Amino acid sequence: MIPGFGGRRRFSDLSEAEILALAISSEEDDGRIYANYAERLRKDYPASAAVFDAMAAEEDGHRRRLIDAFERRFGKVIPLVRREHVAGYYSRRPVWLIENLGLERIRAEAERMEDEAAAFYTRAAQASTDPDTRRLLGDLAAAERGHEQRAKDLEAQALGGAAGETENEKARRQFVLTWVQPGLAGLMDGSVSTLAPIFATAFATQDPGTTFLVGLAASVGAGISMGFTEAAHDDGVISGRGSPLKRGLASGIMTAVGGLGHALPYLIPHFWTATAIAGLVVFVELWAIAWIQNRFMETPFARAVFQVVLGGALVLAAGIAIGGS
């Protein structure tokens, strides 16, 4: 027996009544998901919340029509058939996971939901040999494609003009404040502040193993410190910078990554080869930071280069000078 598939039936084994029951339960679930999205967005993005309210109402209307069709053909008792009962049927990601990822991610997930449903019904219709079943599955696929177009129409209606621009700008700003800004600060700190101890150790000992251990300790320690500092110094309520956990993770992880970038080359046993690669990594890191500042923080590229590349070069030179003295 395949793990996770015990007791699950294949879609091809379902009767038409069970397929209708599955469609009904799927519409119910999708309607609840859209209602949850609307509730999650209502405070900060009221226009987008209105879109998902309308989409939830659309799903409820489709559910009622499916129930009417079932009752006309098979009676009042609808069997309980859910997505998780059918092997290979498309699944939905947890609402709590998606709704914490921002406005654009929620919109993309809604499109994915409709695409998956339409594609699944289309594939199932192509694989079916029973004319009535093929027609039923084709109708379901058409309904899902109709949902997708209807969602786009609703979005265009609710988010057209100033409302859409305002919400998109607000979502972008929130993404920058919660993820980009702390992550960039961490990457800068990890990339620049660890240069001196790593390269001082490298040129003082000319031992790749010792240099790697120092770099690893400096990077991990700096990551933990920056992560806790970012999470603890601002709960995000007054500043509006978002979840302290998200900001702490972004800052801590990127700090460690910044330091490990030029520590990992010292796993190579040949000192000068490792140092040359580490120097190349530093060059790439510093220019990447300058690009991120220009791309997300709207810092003029020349100023970003001056601040980051020149500053990093000075720290690197200090580390080499101290280690070589």
Automatic annotation (TrEMBL):
GO terms for molecular function: manganese ion transmembrane transporter activity; metal ion binding; oxidoreductase activity. Its main location: membrane. This is Rubrerythrin. The keyword Iron does not apply. One of its GO terms (biological process) is intracellular manganese ion homeostasis. One of its GO terms (cellular component) is endomembrane system. It comes from Prosthecomicrobium pneumaticum. PANTHER family: BLR7895 PROTEIN, RUBRERYTHRIN SUBFAMILY. CDD domains: Ferritin_like_AB. Residues 18-154 form the Rubrerythrin diiron-binding domain. It is a multi-pass membrane protein. It is found in: Endomembrane system. Pfam families: Rubrerythrin, VIT1. InterPro entries: Ccc1_fam (IPR008217), Ferritin-like (IPR012347), Ferritin-like_SF (IPR009078), Rr_diiron-bd_dom (IPR003251), UCP035918_rubreryth/DUF125 (IPR017040). The chain crosses the membrane at residues 274-292, 304-324. Keywords: Membrane, Transmembrane, Transmembrane helix.
